[in-house]
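Changelog note: in this version the structure field was regenerated for every chain. One regenerated record is shown below for reference.
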Amino acid sequence: MIQSIDEEREKLYHDKYFRTLAECYREKTGWERNRIKNVIELSRPKFGELVLDLGCGIGVFTIEAAKYGAFTIGLDYSLNAIKYGSSFAKELGMDNLTFVGADAQHIPLKNETFDLIICADLVEHLNNENLMEMLKESHRILKNGGRLAIYTPSPTHIFEIMMKHNFILKKDESHIGLRKIGEIKDFVEKAGFKIIKAYHRPTHIPIFSLIERIFMHIPLLGGLAKRRTCILAIKR
């Protein structure tokens, strides 16, 4: 099912954008390996589960969850994303996954169907209204006790601050919804979920990672070392 695509958003997520992500996945860069490790550790997909990779992009976690024996569906509004995801799946010869073109605010899937929803690098692209609609839809299609895993950049990290001000690192115009961990937890709980875990992870860069692990828990300065926010919740 392919729903109409927002042309303005599609400009941000063009073919070059997804091609860059695809190269990272093919080459298994340090950034990509760290990302996969963090998200799988958070979400823990299991054999036989039905998993939705929401805002799947090129389908990294659609594919990675399927490797654990889950049947996975990758959903993204971008046709470019669906194109890359389908291509990867074909290359790998995987048949326990599929892709759907649709908006995360209007998920064309049945109530209380899924065991796990993975939202990796999605919520930072959503404004408050869109985020709440996405969470309500996630709640609707999860089974009772089903899990929701959110993985997103922390706005307090030094890299995000530099990007915000276009200082050395380029600003990411698509990041319209960077939020602190407490803000995301509030949204998740208002949508009817119970928070199980909420923590931060350091960057993938070895030396920075070591320093961040040391400084992460220091008052005031610790926020600068919190690269990624990880939240796991269940449907109540």
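Spot check on this record: Confidence is low (pLDDT under 50) at residues 1-7. DSSP finds nine helices and seven strands in the chain.
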